[in-house]
Amino acid sequence: MNSSRDLTIIIQSRMGSSRLPGKMVLSINGETILETVLIRLLKEFPPENIYIAITDLPQDDILNNIADQFGIQVFRGDNENVLSRFVEIAHKVKTRFVCRLTGDSPMIMPELINDAYSQIESSNFDYVSTILNENFPLGVHVEVFKLGCLIDRLPKEPNVTQCEHVTSFIYNNSEFKCKNLMVENKYPYGRYTLDYLQDFHFFYKLSNYLNMPLSQITIDDLWKVKINNPKIFHINMSIKKERTAV
Description:
- About 30% of the residues lie in helices and about 15% in strands.
- It is built from nine helices and nine strands.
- Strand 4 (about 50-55), helix 2 and strand 5 form a beta-alpha-beta unit.
- It is globular and about 50 Å long.
- The chain starts with 6 loop residues before the first strand and ends in an 18-residue tail after the last helix.
């Protein structure tokens, strides 16, 4: 584990998903989805570099409790204005860069965060991510950007879209220098987010086929399944691609 990175990771999450309520505490092979994400991150990053940004609604108390068990810092804020949660955290931390993750992406790999951090830290870009083109499948959400974007360059009156999607004010504005993340080890084509019951069935089948918790599955493991049992990837591939708040 290397704590020298000048980076704060913020995971946005909530229990009140309209499509799949309570999805963050659905369990597969003994791990809830949120636990899967935290276990992955803690292999590479110290807990003091990680926040979970949840709502101030009582239904999110369970997410608060899970974060506490892992020693992860918690920020609770507005249910609708996700951007405001990130801004509040930005004013608390001292790092130069922020990584935005979504809690419903259990296949996120820490090496992607490291790659994005390396590529922004050594350049003059404001923002490096996996979402600017189609090189990465849905559910592999990594966005690393300068902390100052949330403090010094925030819109005076963010609109509804900006409040929901957090970083849209950056990648939709030509005044920011944005770059898509470049990696060598690519994911097999698939859908790796948890929005619908079919997505849960995909992760459940994937975990059982490999006989391991989701938190232990690597990109190489995904390729093995893609080659040896591609039908598992068909479970949720008919779902229309959408980008919405967690």
